[in-house]
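retry 2 of 3: previous attempt timed out while embedding zinc ion. Reduced batch size to 1 and resubmitted. Inputs unchanged:
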Amino acid sequence: MKIRKCERCKRYTLREKCRCGLITVSPHPPKFSPEDRWGEWRRKAKKLVENRTIR
Ligand SMILES: [Zn+2]
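retry 2 succeeded.
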């Protein structure tokens, strides 16, 4: 079972829908690393820069 949260009531529940009617969300967002995303962006940017370099 996953714990979920109603953002309107700020109440934790196990239901997918809060009793106020709002769809509850998982309080923890899907796992991802901002640093990894940044690293990927940097690699792409570096490649772009290298491709544009006039020698
Ligand atoms: Zn609610």
